Amino acid sequence: MGKTKFSTPLLFQSKLLCFSLIYLFSAVILAVYFTFSATKCIFRSSPLDPLQSPLFSYPPSYGEHKYAIPTTRSSCNSPVYFSDYMVVMKEMRQLCENSNSTSLGAKSLRYLQGNAESFGGNLSFEKRISYFNDANEIACGFFRRFPISKSGITANSNHKKCLYRIAMEKCNGLVVVSAIFNDHDKIRQPKGLGTKTLDYACFFMFVDDATVNRLHFHNLISRKSKKHKIGAWRIVKVSSEYLYKNAAMNGVIPKYLIHRLFPNSKYSIWIDAKLQLVIDPFLLIHSLVVKENVDMAISKHPFFVHTIEEAMATARWKKWWDVNGLKVQMETYCEDGLEPWSSKKPYPSDVPDSALILRKHSATTNLFSCLLFNELEAFNPRDQLPFAYVRDKMSPKLNINMFEVEVFEQVTIEYRHNLKQSGANVGPKVRMAWLDLFANGTCSECEGYLLKMWGESQD
Fold first, then answer.
1. Are 153 and 161 in contact (CB under 8 A)?
2. 285 domain-assigned
3. Is 219 exposed, middle or buried (0-12, 13-18, 19+ CB in 10 A)?
4. What is the mean pLDDT of the chain?
5. Separation between Cα atoms, residue 147 and residue 209, nearest integer Å
6. Which residue, 77, 295, 300, 381, shows the most beta carbons closer than 10 Å to its own?
7. Based on the structure, what is the number of domains in the chain?
């Protein structure tokens, strides 16, 4: 009898196949490990719903995914649970249809009208604080016309009305708003939208001439078309030469006066253009605002809890060049009663990350937005600085959900701003009197604040 020959199994005859299988098994094991070991801050009852294909294909030259900022967090103190998408859509549609502006309290405020040298009226400090307590009529911008492009003009009875304004007034549910001025960012499409979201939510992106020119350069919008839309975003051109010289201040108008630009909307989401939304906006509003029964939801700042900490960082990192102006602003707030954060306050922090703001358009939220905008025009567009001052001083009080930074980092992707050789236009080029905000012992009105913040006060 002949000897039995044992052949090598086919699986092991190919070294390439062996290495491929080893690589595959290793990748699967690592994926499973990181999936179950990494802390998650968001939970869905149906993780694959919503799921939507990309909304728009950009040319490679545009680079919409350049400069992404990676984030890693090892813990999450308050995870967010998202309900089933279709259940949320049904509930949100009922809320919007069964409630009008009056039931949300939006029409209980009246806005002052008139003409002024600036869009916000250039109000004195005494005039601004007069609106903080149960104001029925309040200054809230629009003392000059908000100069939306005249493209898309239609005859309407005996006058002409911009098609953009008509679309803004017709947005009567949820509106998502962003803005790019001075070509400071890229237009990035929201991800994870449900199949019904674009039917019931409005997406508006406000841009200026510099940004429009860049969009024309990449052939993203046509010079001949009167209707500009890029993916989910309806593009609205604003003639910024009639507003403020500083591009950041122009961006503050749609950021805080959404309720005036979209007077019939019941809910809104502001998202800075440096962010890409990766969770359906209805899920966000439902989980962070509706279920929490609050007027507004905003993330806590990742590093600071005290207002003056943020003010010092603003000066130190040259986020605003007029350090003397920052000092005057903080001294004004300290003199009028601004206190550092403590556990006695009903809020977990005095400093937000205001890149993402979710609102119910109630009278309280609208009042807060108007008051904050007036402070920004009076001093500078750094909106984290007057946040606690306005929130703590206003009446009625704002019911706010300041959620964890880890949640913010999982519902958005953050990108760096467009890099320019000329540098960012962040403020007036004035001589910086101090390297820091309160150097050389010049703190006067804020001395008590600083002592309490540092834990040195005897009070």
1. yes
2. yes
3. exposed
4. 84
5. 12
6. 295
7. 1
3-state secondary structure of 374: helix
Band of residue 420 on the pLDDT scale cut at 50, 70, 90: low
**CATH number where 356 lies:** 3.90.550
**Buried b / exposed e across 428-447, counting CB within 10 Å, b at 16+?**
eeeeeeeeebbeeeebeebe
DSSP H helical segments within 317-404, as ranges?
323-335, 363-378, 387-393
For residue range 183-211, list pLDDT tens digits in order.
999 999 999 899 899 999 999 999 999 99
Judge contact between 265 and 257, C-beta under 8 A: no
Convert the pLDDT of each residue in 46-92 to its tens digit.
Answer: 766 666 778 888 998 898 777 788 776 667 888 899 999 999 999 99
Residue 434 falls within a domain, yes or no? no
The residues, any chain, with a CB within 8 Å of residue 399's CB and separated by 6 or more, are: 293, 294, 295, 296, 364
**Distance (Å) of CA 13 to CA 16, 20, 300, 327:** 9, 13, 58, 75
Spatial neighbors of 351 by CB under 8 A, at least 6 apart, are: 300, 301, 304, 305, 306, 307, 309, 310, 341, 384, 387, 388
Instruction: Give the 3-state secondary structure of residue 245.
Output: coil
Nearest residue to 280 via CA among 94, 411, 414, 415:
411
Task: Give the residue numbers spanning the domain of 242.
Answer: 85-151+160-305+341-415
By three-state DSSP, how is residue 379 classified?
Answer: coil
Strand (E) or helix (H) holding 159: strand 159-162
Which of the four pLDDT bands, split at 50, 70 and 90, describes residue 101?
A: very low
**Four-point Cα dihedral 288, 294, 296, 300, nearest 10:** -60
Q: Which whole-number Å values give the CA distances from 68 to 90, 182, 188, 200, in the listed order?
A: 34, 20, 12, 29
In degrees rounded to 5, what are phi and psi of residue 101? -60, -35
Q: Identify the weakest region by mean pLDDT among 111-120, 126-135, 336-345, 423-432.
A: 423-432
Tell me, yes or no, whether 262 lies in a domain.
yes
Q: Are 308 and 449 in contact (CB under 8 A)?
A: yes
pLDDT digits (tens, 9 = 90+) for 290-315: 999 999 999 999 999 999 999 999 99
Residue 251 and residue 177 in contact, taking contact as beta carbons nearer than 8 Å? no
CA-based end-to-end distance of the chain: 103
41: left (phi over 0), alpha (psi -120 to 50) or beta: alpha
Residue 421 lies in a domain: no
